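User: Structure please.
Assistant: Input sequence and predicted structure:
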Amino acid sequence: MRNLVALARHLGVTDEEILEALRRLNPHYRVSRYPDAANGVPMEVYSERIASELVGLSERVVSWVRKLLGEG
């Protein structure tokens, strides 16, 4: 599955904050897998602010998953 939101829904995720984070991360997930999808060189498409925001969203999702798994 190549859609983070669809994958989350398939797994039964209902936490709206996590789904929103995944919605925002989804297009960037595609770019990381398929650099041509960036319509440019990825390092020129992302600023430090954008990258920092995406890392924060990713960390929120990872933290949520760890909590579900009893690791955090």
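The chain has one domain: 4-68.
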